[in-house]
TrEMBL record:
Record-given protein name: Coproporphyrinogen III oxidase
Lineage, broadest ranks: Bacteria, Pseudomonadati, Pseudomonadota, Gammaproteobacteria, Enterobacterales
Domain of life: Bacteria
Length: 258
């Protein structure tokens, strides 16, 4: 987060590694959804606003350091102790929860608890907020939630839009490729031509460059309606009094080479 430099990050990682942990997850703080209080503290106590370009260079440094310590990436931000190979993402480990959240079309999941989200074919179920209200309703065998419906084509395309960027790999045999919309095919081909994705006979895979930009790829492959929803969330959050996001936090320096 803001005020943190490369030396601090490496020191923190080494302390975590020394604990003997099998897994370490690393990702930047999302400054859009953090509290106004945190935004105010950052502005009051530091002028060291971490730019998007510097965050990217930190990602490269972290990957090199974690691999040197015997950890391999297993998705866009998680590392696991594993034998080191030249693979972009190891296939020796995967977090089962994320296999369902960012998985294939037939990978449903049920969420339990306050604000929990469940995803079933064609439907998303969101539990109510508020602990007391949730507990009271469950004790009365009343399930308070919101249920939304969507085109089941979105479930079929989830492996390309979510799984491929997040896990770095999508098996074509588990995707109904004949249903892929022209727009999504076009975007995939653009990413392939740009060296971010490799298309072989049986799968799509991220290249190393693609792995660096996995979250951007995820957004790029989303339907326009879904992109609009995310953009609206960002704009609405930034209207909250006290929140601030500088241009350099979200815009990368032109001509950045990797």
């Amino acid at each position: 987060m803001h005020g943190e430099d490369e030396e601090v990050i490496i020191s923190d990682l080494d302390k975590a590694i020394d604990l003997g942990l099998s897994n370490v997850d690393i990702y930047p703080i999302n400054n859009v959804v953090t509290s106004s209080k945190l935004h105010k503290s950052v502005r009051d106590y530091t002028d060291n606003i971490t730019s998007a370009t510097r965050k990217f260079s930190m990602k490269l440094l972290i990957d090199l350091h974690m691999r040197s310590k015997g950890f391999m990436p297993h998705n866009g931000h998680g590392y696991v102790r594993s034998s080191i190979t030249d693979q972009v993402v190891t296939d020796n480990y995967s977090f089962i929860y994320h296999e369902h959240v960012y998985g294939y079309g037939d990978h449903d999941f049920l969420g339990f608890g306050i604000n929990a989200i469940s995803s079933l074919r064609g439907h998303v179920i969101t539990n109510i907020t508020g602990r007391e209200k949730y507990i009271d309703s469950m004790n009365k065998n009343i399930y308070l939630c919101k249920i939304s419906q969507h085109d089941e084509l979105l479930d079929e395309m989830k492996p390309l839009i979510l799984r491929l960027p997040y896990h770095g790999y999508a098996d074509k045999s588990q995707i109904k490729m004949n249903l892929v919309p022209d727009r999504l095919y076009g975007r995939l081909n653009e990413l392939i031509d740009s060296g971010l994705i490799v298309d072989d006979t049986h799968s799509f895979r991220l290249t190393k460059l693609g792995w660096y930009w996995y979250s951007n790829i995820m957004f790029y492959l989303m339907p326009e309606a879904e992109q609009a929803i995310l953009k609206k969330i960002v704009h609405e959050e930034l209207k909250t009094p006290g929140k601030f996001l500088s241009k350099k936090e979200i815009i990368y320096t032109a001509g950045l080479n990797v």
